[in-house]
Write a structure and sequence with these properties.
Elements: H1 7-17, H2 30-36, H3 44-54, H4 70-78
Helix pairs in contact: 2-3, 3-4
Length: about 80
């Protein structure tokens, strides 16, 4: 599983176990890779949901999942 969507790494290990309290920033295009390289997400909305729930704060270099689709991702996540 890619780190950008791993709650076990970003939240459980980094924040809870190690006490990190700064912003968590993605590797370049890692959120996008969830749809076209790792195939863990069907679209940018699902990629955003995976990363937000894992604990990713900032997506770089562009806003593939955290941009215009973020509102849709929020609504989709809340309806789960």
């Amino acid at each position: 599983m890619p780190i950008c969507s791993s709650k076990e790494i970003l939240t459980d290990l980094l924040r809870d176990d190690l006490g990190f309290d700064g912003p968590v920033v993605s590797d370049y295009t890692s959120v996008n890779f969830l749809t076209n390289k790792y195939f863990t997400a069907d679209d940018s909305t699902e990629a955003a949901i995976q990363c937000i729930t894992a604990g990713l704060d900032v997506e770089l270099p562009s806003q593939f999942g955290y941009g215009p689709n973020l509102r849709e991702a929020s609504k989709k996540w809340e309806s789960r």
